[in-house]
Amino acid sequence: MLRSCFARSSKARKGAIKAGIYFVAMVASNTVDHSFLDASLKRANENGLGFVAVKVARPVNPGSGRGGVHAGRIQKSQFSHSCRLEHPSKGLFMGSENPCVSAVISNMSNLEKDEANLKIPGITRES
């Protein structure tokens, strides 16, 4: 498995395709900045490379050492994904509905988040 360098993930994906020895890569993809990855993920997926989406809720989820969430990120997330979910779950939902993503690593830091994440497979955009 290739764990891409998040700062240069585009080069890592291109290198993985060219090398032809990787089957799956971990890539940071989330509700705020996923759009620049979509074309690249699709190309890589067409060449047989699967993806595990990581950090799917990070931009919209305050956490230790990160302080608060910038209001612009929340607004962008609301605009791009209209389903009614709390932000960590919204990130997981977004990652799981991308056809180029094989798996999503969820935020499981407490029981409340675990329970919210377990409901996601039955949710649709209209929910």
Describe this structure in words.
There is one protein chain. The chain has 127 residues and is α/β, with parallel strands linked by helices. The chain has one domain. 41% of the residues lie in helices and 11% in strands. The protein contains five helices and four strands. It has a four-stranded parallel β-sheet with strand order 1-2-3-4, with helices on one face. α1 packs parallel to α2 (35-46). Residues 1-7 have low confidence and may be disordered.
Number of E-type strands: 4
Average pLDDT confidence is: 67
Order of helices and strands: EHEHEHHEH
Shape descriptor = globular
Main sheet properties: 4 strands, parallel
**Radius of gyration based on Cα positions:** 15 Å
Percentage of β-strand residues: 5-15%
Concise overview:
This protein is of the alpha/beta class. It has helices at residues 9-19, 35-46, 71-80, 87-97, 111-118, and strands at residues 2-3, 24-28, 50-54, 103-104.
List keywords for this structure.
127 residues; 4 strands; single chain; globular; alpha/beta; four-stranded parallel beta sheet
Outline the secondary-structure elements:
Layout (H helix, E strand, L loop, with lengths): L1 E2 L5 H11 L4 E5 L6 H12 L3 E5 L16 H10 L6 H11 L5 E2 L6 H8 L9
Parallel strand pairs: 1-2, 2-3, 3-4
